[in-house]
Amino acid sequence: MRTYLSSTPGRLRTGAVLCAVTALFFGGAGFLSFQVRSQAQAEAHHQTEQAVGFQEILTQVLQADARSTNTYLRGGLEPVGQRADHDAALSDLSRGLVEACGNDAAARERLAEVNASLTLYTEASATARANNRQGFPVASAYLRQASEHLRKGIAPELEALAASETGRSDDSFEQARWSSRLFLLFGLTALGVLLCFQWRLARSSHRVLNLPMLVATLGVLTALGGGTAMMTLAQQKLDDLHEGSYSATIALSRARVAGFDAKALESLILIARGGADEDESRFDQRMDQIEQSLTEANRAGTLSDADPVAEWLAVHERIRTLDRAGDWDAAVELAATDSSTGAESAFLRFSQSVGSELSGESARMSSQFRDAESGLDLAGAGVLLSGILAGGFAWWGFSLRREEYR
Questions:
Q1: Buried b (16+ CB within 10 A) or exposed e, 372-404
Q2: Which tens digit of pLDDT belongs to each residue from 275-332?
Q3: Residue 23's closest CA among 268, 222, 209?
Q4: In angstroms, what CA-CA distances link 23 with 30, 188, 394?
Q5: How distant, in Å, are the alpha carbons of 58, 77, 121 from that of 82?
Q6: 3-state secondary structure the chain
Q7: Are 250 and 52 in contact (CB under 8 A)?
Q8: What's the sign of the alpha-carbon dihedral 54, 59, 64, 66?
């Protein structure tokens, strides 16, 4: 065996095997590189939608809480329509928690805790509403209890889940980037092996060209060039998406969450009548989060309204000024009124502006994900076919030289 391998026909057969295997390896590895990129981009899309979904669930319960605290601030009977909206929001939230679980065991466990806190929140909120209708002061204690369940039980878990999905999405973006580098590495390695053996064939046979080997090498070179161009184009689309609609969608989603929480806190501060230092601090933190999120969205060049929160913040400052001056009734009127100059109307314009931008960016992000994924499967199949054909031609090229030694 050793004697055969050391002979010229043996070396030619070994070279044929190595070149054919190298070409086939390039085709298979290249195909898998495109599959990895396609899967990574699909996972990034899904994980981003999951993150936004968790934020949307939290937005719904915070929106319901904002309605509830505003109703308490007004006192008396709750409007039938507002009560129906509140109950519908909580009902949608319960269904959303079930749908968001998916097959993720860790998420199901955490969402079970959220559901338990939601039940406690709903009970405390309903008791506060019932006592408030009858004018009992104990209603504020139940309202505070509901707020604790929401802000220390529900919100942290959902925000942690959203952050986890965002982190996984960023990992998927990076995995897609690495697939391009690996494809280039596989291609250059295969090209180097084929060129090396073609050079050795030329030296041993004293012929400059081996036509089948030349076709095999050009096939790998063409697949490498075309595949690299496709990978580069897909990566460029993905980078543009990540810096644009993806970043804007995540930022606007966070801004909505912080906005509805801040709106509820605005009412809770007044309800506490000077004893809400923790709520005031949390309100300031939420406003900072809104400003930071809107800055990130603006950096992505998405917001048509440069500062949608400015009007509401100005009204809030007037409310706090009235409250600190001792004119609590005027502060409550400004916070709870439906007039165009009140906090409710200013906040509504903020939430509608951000919500509209979020819907648009989310749709644009989905469209860009689909665009970045288009053509990847076809390109991967083309690389695989090129590898198979190159392997066949390489084997044929060596076979021609072996025939000369028969």
A1: bbeebeebbebbbebbbbbbbbbbbbbebbbee
A2: 667 888 889 999 999 999 988 888 876 665 657 788 888 888 998 888 888 888 888 8
A3: 222
A4: 10, 11, 8
A5: 19, 11, 18
A6: CHHHHHCHHHHHHHHHHHHHHHHHHHHHHHHHHHHHHHHHHHHHHHHHHHHHHHHHHHHHHHHHHHHHHHHHHHCCCCCHHHHHHHHHHHHHHHHHHHHHHCCCHHHHHHHHHHHHHHHHHHHHHHHHHHHHHCCCCCHHHHHHHHHHHHHHHHHHHHHHHHHHHHHHHHHHHHHHHHHHHHHHHHHHHHHHHHHHHHHHHHHHHCCCCCHHHHHHHHHHHHHHHHHHHHHHHHHHHHHHHHHHHHHHHHHHHHHHHHHHHHHHHHHHHHHHCCCCHHHHHHHHHHHHHHHHHHHHHHHCCCCCCCCCCHHHHHHHHHHHHHHHCCCHHHHHHHHHCCCCCCHHHHHHHHHHHHHHHHHHHHHHHHHHHHHHHCCHHHHHHHHHHHHHHHHHHHHHHHHHHHHCCC
A7: yes
A8: positive
List, for residues 175-219, the tens digit of each pLDDT value: 999 999 999 999 999 999 888 887 877 666 656 567 888 888 899
Lowest mean pLDDT among 87-91, 116-120, 390-394: 87-91
Cα 288 to Cα 120, 160, 262: the distances in Å are 29, 19, 10
* Contact assessment for residue 346 and residue 318, using Cβ atoms and an 8 Å cutoff: no
Which amino acid, 390? A
> CA separation (Å) from 52 to 155, 188, 349, 352, 357?
14, 40, 21, 17, 14
CA 59 to chain centroid: 17
Q: Are 48 and 249 in contact, with CB atoms under 8 Å apart? A: yes
Alpha carbons 198 and 189: distance in angstroms, whole number: 14
241 neighbors 368 (Cβ within 8 angstroms):
yes
Distance of CA 178 to the CA centre of its chain: 19
